[in-house]
From TrEMBL:
Protein name per its UniProtKB record: SAM-dependent methyltransferase
The UniProt record lists the keyword Methyltransferase: yes
GO molecular function: methyltransferase activity
Lineage: Bacteria, Bacillati, Actinomycetota, Actinomycetes, Kitasatosporales
UniProt keywords, alphabetically: Methyltransferase, Transferase
Entries under SUPFAM superfamilies matching the protein: S-adenosyl-L-methionine-dependent methyltransferases
Compositional bias (Basic and acidic residues): 1-14
UniProt record, GO biological process: methylation
Record organism: Streptomyces calvus
Domain of life: Bacteria
CDD domains to which the protein is assigned, alphabetical: AdoMet_MTases (cd02440)
Residue ranges occupied by any Methyltransferase domain in the UniProt entry: 67-164
Region (Disordered): 1-29
């Protein structure tokens, strides 16, 4: 499983596969080598949000020896950890070897390859192959892809060093990139898309192997995993109009994947509105309209293994 998800993961593949985007969570036949450049671009767009989150973590965790990025995808956040903690060794863990190849190449470009490693395997089992416990273990939008989230957090907690921190990026707010009233179609399109995505997300969770229904109270789940001092903080990505070409390309991709993922859950009028928004020949499409923006909020929950 790869998750560098950066946009709202209920809509995207970002996560840097984890971290980060717009998907319906049908991961079975995804060609991650083909997806990698898109995941990397999305995670790079969300870098200002990640940098703020890591800056906050750096005040909570001082001089870690080992930082593990669980569900690293192409390694955008992994390499940000290398910059944030220049004395730490970084290990990127992901189920996709093509994405880990991208992570290693990125680490080399950033000049941190000498303290950057990768581990291929599915979460959370792959964490058992770490050579030594982590001082900071980061899971960005990867835990919700595991059937038993409580058991997954407990497995992560077991791989922490005494006094080590588990940081989980889950929840927040859906990404927004259009005004409520776009001048055609019924106002409130993105709110209705949110409903469709939430329903799809619930179906995805229910269909996971060993799925366990749980209240998504992340601090309580972290406490149940035996961790103490739970804290939560939300970080904003605010890219106002007028947007750069890179940001506009992200919006086009996000809306395209929404169209592919939840079209059957939208009514005919909303599908027609989305199709018009995606028509590059239409001046009112997201390819051209001047009011496109990106606004997103991701929440990080942390807790500490008792000394």
């Amino acid at each position: 499983m790869a998750h560098d998800h950066e946009p709202h993961d209920r809509e995207h593949h970002e996560h840097g596969h984890g971290h980060g985007h717009t998907h319906g969570h049908d991961h079975g036949d995804i060609d991650w080598a083909e997806m990698a450049p898109l995941l990397e671009a999305e995670a790079e767009l969300f870098t200002p949000l990640y940098e703020r989150a890591l800056g906050w973590l750096a005040k909570e965790v001082t001089e870690p020896g080992l930082v593990v990025d669980a569900g690293s995808g192409p390694g955008v956040i992994s390499c940000l950890f290398a910059e944030t903690f220049p004395g730490a060794r970084i290990v990127a863990v992901d189920g996709s070897e093509p994405l880990l190849e991208r992570a290693r190449a990125r680490a080399a470009r950033k000049g941190v390859a000498d303290r950057f490693g990768t581990l291929a395997g599915e979460l959370p089992g792959a964490l058992g192959e770490l050579d030594y416990p982590a001082d900071l273990l980061w899971a960005s939008r990867s835990v919700h892809h595991l059937g038993d989230q409580g058991a997954a957090l407990a497995a992560c907690a077991e791989r922490l060093a005494s006094g080590g921190t588990l940081a989980v990026m889950e929840g927040g707010l859906p990404v927004r990139f259009l005004p409520r009233d776009i001048g055609f179609g019924r106002p409130g399109l993105q709110a209705r898309i949110d409903v469709a995505l939430e329903d799809r997300f619930s179906r995805m969770r229910a269909e996971l192997p060993g799925s366990v229904a749980q209240v998504e109270d992340w601090p309580a789940l972290l406490a149940s995993a035996g961790l103490h001092h739970a804290r939560s903080r939300t970080f904003l990505l605010d890219l106002p109009a007028p947007v750069t070409d890179r940001t506009r390309a992200y919006v086009v991709t996000a809306l395209t994947r929404i169209r592919e993922g939840v079209a059957e859950d939208l009514d005919a009028d909303d599908r027609a509105t989305v199709d018009r928004l995606l028509d590059p020949a239409d001046p009112a499409s997201v390819h051209h309209r001047p009011d496109v923006f990106v606004l997103a909020a991701h929440t990080v929950h942390t807790a500490v293994r008792p000394v």
